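Fold it.
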Amino acid sequence: MERQVDRRRLLKFGTVSTLGAWMSSTEKINACGAEITADGTVAAARQGGYVHPGRTMGDAWYFVDHAAAQVHMYYLTQPLDGSGPRFVGHAVSDDLINWETLPPAIEQGTTGAWDDRKVCSGSVFQRDDRYWMAYSATSSVESPPSEPWRWQRMGLAWSNDLTRWTKLDENPVAEPTTPHYERIGSGQRKMQHWRDPFLFADGGYAYAFITARATKGSIKERGVIALARSSDMRRWEVLPPITHDRVAEEMEVPQIYKIDGRWYLVFLTLGRFMAPNFAQRFAGEVPERSNFAMVGESPFGPFRIHGTGQIIPHGVDDYFYAAQLVNFQQKWWLLATIHDENSQRISRAIEVYADATGIHPVA
């Protein structure tokens, strides 16, 4: 089954620098499959999935528009051959099976801008009758080609329709500060860790949960979830990290969810970043990279990991990463980025459930 893209509707959302290339590479959108099954395995998730032809597929994040019964997916992408710009792509679906590709949501900044080198993961939420996207990025001013991720900061963009986005003039709005956070990591990757902001509203404030490294503790356990807050989305106060078990040098793409009265911290890490006592829980089968969940008492912790905390068990060498949860049609789903011999793509959705020990696939 194929679905034609309505070019007339999409053209009004296009941008001068990328729309021509985007339209030439995206003629039709292929369906991912007949229906979503309850088979909670990576093998099932590999069947189909979303591909942006001719481009890489990196981390993705989601916003559910319940009024329109649609899911918006935003994702990191660049040409497969490495040429051309990296941007935040955009696709929509009304069933988590068929995705319609839209023009890019966020593009790299102009030369010398805070976000002209690398654009990194983000999130979207709604506040004050606007949609807000937080994302992280690096600049060529501080991050040379040999170290493109060296100096990470957080910025914001806003939208009235989830499609046309305007970057804040105040960007970047937050970066790590002492005494709580390292400026340059003391672990394996020597860079300023301040990426993957996840937006969350609580008590009149907007909070951002951010990948960072603490200044204290074992080098292998300094990966923390940093916290920043704002009352106006433009001025941000950097706070101490949330309370959670220390399990790795880096805890990437943090997310906070409340499911059936419990709070869950979802994060990602690589096997080589795991603290020794955490890696031992895998009994010699440490995954090269994977997705994990902790269970907590509030959105700010304390969060505890039970067992390995791995959400979807998979082969140690599988690239099944950057998983995010989506609450859609009264169920919880997980989607992740897959890289294999076939393509780079976003997986089919896997139905999951949550309990006192974490998040698990529906068998």
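The radius of gyration is 19 Å.
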